[in-house]
Amino acid sequence: MKDLEFLSALVKSLTRDAEEQRAAVGLLVSLSDDRGVIRRMGRIQGCILMLVAILNGTDDQEASCDAKMLLNSMSTNTQHALHMAEAGYFKPLIKYLKQGSEMSKVLMATALSRLELTDQNKASLGQDGAIEPLVNMFKTGNLEAKLSALNALQSLSNFKQNIQRLIDSGIVVALLQLLFSVTSVLMTLREPASAILAKVAQSESILVKQDITHQMLSLLNLSSPVIQNNLLEALNNIVSHSSASKVRTRMKENGAIQLLLPFFAEKDTRIRTGALKLVYVLSKDIQGELTEQLDYSHVHIIANIIFTTTSECEKAAALGILSNLPVSDKKITDIIKNVNLLPFLVSTMSSSKQNSTPTAMWLTESIAGVLVRFTNPNDKRLQHYSAENGIIPLLLNLLGSSSEAAKSMAALSLAQLSQNSVTMSRSRKLKWFCVPPSTDSFCEVHDGYCTAKSTFCLVKAGAVTPLIRILEGGERGADEAVLSCLSTLLQDEIWESGCNHLVKKSGVEAMIKVVSCGSFKAREKGLWILERIFRVEAYRERYSESAESVLIDLAQNGDLMLAPAVAKVLAQLELLQVQSTYF
Questions:
Q1: What's the CA gap between 328 and 309, in Å, rounded?
Q2: Whether 336 contacts 300, CB under 8 Å
Q3: Is pLDDT at 582 greater than 50 in this prediction?
């Protein structure tokens, strides 16, 4: 009964219906006291795979329990344990990692590093305790043990939930010590060590490790390209954490940007992109200081990268750095203008398909940030150049972006252009024109002849409706910039016609909505606009009812800094004495 042919027949029965399957696995258990039977069972093709399937996938508790008993009996053979791991049953492998001989530990770790693990496999290995014995192997084992353990840990580190387990195991200090080691026999370990460090850096808890970024930066110029790429990935993960502001500040103070600039000329795209991303993040809050660290030759290098790279991520990072440079530095503007960056950006956005992937949104935001420089209100010549090169249709397109930041910067650029519309609009009172203006170009707001391209008129550009649409939406990130833009239609010279236009475009309800639920700055701007609109008696009567409850609630529960502005509008609506000292 125990010959191979009979055992093979029983194994085939494991694939049959539930009743036959239960009988077959029960009979195999009754024969399993014989070690010879166990050895022969393990050699039968598909036996281990079927037992694992019964263990994991059946509702038959008896069959599942018997399958587990058989697998445990068979796992005393290391090859059987490896086949179980290949089938997705890892407990025997983990047991060897914890309690096996040094040779069997290396065997299991090596096999684990070569398996194509699913996320579910990685989760199971982490939960069942595979990480701690692997870390111990890395810390205390010989070279072969260290390498096999690191390769296995690298595979497990690709699953997010395992990252904290790695940190809790104390691996970070050991990884850094290895990376700083100059012992030649340990050099082969540095690449997997740096790859694990890059993954571990995704957790904010790594920030408790003092000076870890300084240590990684000091390793950059002493490492191979693979390790450099991993270190840059780790640094980018660290600085991206919301609680890493102090870390970013220390990095800037310690000269991180200067250290990273030479990598802009690196031929390896991954390394160059990593350096650009890191400088972009570090340069966000130091516009004035950035030009002290990044000279004009680097602006040329960055511009060249933008033109030549095929990587969206690299392009976004390079443009992001340019957007962080101070707008007041005219030489930077001249450099990027002379290389025809603006026409390139207009063409890029016109030909690109709209999508909402994180990289695509970042690229859109970076482009929108650079456009702010080309609409500087103090440089009308530059504004005309930008309008001639198609910036206004691009800005209108950006108002429909899925990125609140891109919408905000597009509205800011349109506001900067619109600031000068009043002085550039040609009055209809003038009797002589070189070329008679078209009747279609007459603007009811500016009481003159306007076009989008020549006077940057929001009305003629068709910008008012999409701006109001943003205020009507559910996101509040662009409100302040949009209201700043619309307020350019309410400058002292044109406020009444501007109010008429906003009412005509159904914009007042949107203003009231922002005053109700916007940020402090947005509410402040919204109140300023409402005060101008409610100077007109007809609009006070029309909108008093919808504005009343919002304004009273803001007066009673809002920020005290807004009280004078709220009081002024309430007084206009005769809901408060103009001379009231209540506020």
A1: 28
A2: no
A3: no
Residue 442 pairs in a beta bridge with 449
Q: Hunting for tokens 């349109």 — which residue is that?
A: 414
Q: Which of 98, 76, 80, 82 has its CA nearest to residue 44?
A: 80
Cα separation, 245 vs 522, in Å, equals: 26
Q: What angle do CA 291, 297, 301 make, to 5 degrees?
A: 105
Alpha helices by DSSP H, 32-130: 35-43, 47-57, 61-74, 78-86, 91-99, 102-114, 119-127
Q: Measure the CA–CA gap between 57 and 201, rounded to whole angstroms.
A: 36
User: Residue 426: helix, strand or coil by DSSP?
Assistant: strand
Of 74, 110, 100, 102, nearest to 89 by C-alpha is: 74
CA atoms of 495 and 488, how far apart (whole Å): 9
pLDDT tens digits, one per residue of 529-552: 999 999 999 999 999 999 999 999
Tokens of 489: 């239609």
Per-residue model confidence as pLDDT tens digits over 18-61: 777 777 777 777 777 777 777 887 778 878 888 888 888 767 78
CA distance 85 to 106: 15
Tell which residue, 250, 333, 320, has the closest CA to residue 283. Answer: 320
Q: Which two tokens stand for residue 404?
A: 């609140």
